[in-house]
Amino acid sequence: MNRRSTVISLDDVGDLVSDGDVVGIGGFVTTNKPCALVRQLAMARKRRLTVVAAPSSIELDLMIGLDMVQEVITPYCGAESLAPVAPFYSHYAGRRFRLQEIDNGSLMAMLEAHIRRVPFMPVHVIGTSIVEYNERVRVVENPFKQGEVAVVRPLEIDVALIHAMRADKYGNVQHRGAHFMDHLLAQAAKKVIVQVERVVPNETIRSLSLETSLPCEFVDYVVETPFGAHPAASQGFYRRDDRSIAAYVDAARAHLRGDEQPFDDFVARFIDGPGSHAAYCQAVGVDKVFSLSIEGGGD
Description:
about 300 residues, alpha/beta, Glutaconate Coenzyme A-transferase, 2 domains, 11 helices, 12 strands
């Protein structure tokens, strides 16, 4: 069988996402975030995006701060103790972008409805504000017994951005640890781009076949980006960079107070300035990046 390589350059990613797309972002809060891919979209200043994300962090907040987003569907956006709620997300929700309030279970149901090709899925949200503040939720008569039930409509994604441990050149992807909602985002998307710490031989994937979390039929493109989740953590490879996250949060908060210079400097140094992922790591500090490594990561 003649199989094609899915490996592309990080520089190619911007051309794969169009203004107005529905973009899915994988990972969970500050773990396994496809930050290198998001930085490429930020560099290109994509506009009018609808972002669908599992619990998210500063990668989404950055996009909001750069006025790239018109609608957000996520259960959470923050950096835990470093910023319980992300600055731009909190300030601009309902102003600069529409926020569709959602919980994890209902978001999963929306994705599953599209994957299963059914018109809706029932969810347990009656009595919560989700019914009022999410236009994708409806309350209908229960067809099986007396009473009402909430349902959500299917959610299709144009491009899913995912971070994982490794993949072969054909697009067989393996996560280290939990894969969160990544498998649902991939199956619900028209196009899937996965950034990985390492591209490995197909023989490696086949020898550890039970660890394959996304088979190649769900993956369109693979981008090799060591430390690509930075400043988030990558399971089994490196810890999150609390100092870099805190620096972003401070710059965003200063911007919202009227002092735009710190955020402008952040964007110039870490988004627009570096011409490559390697240059980004140099801007952060190679020694600093390496110091986050987990001993034995990826073995």
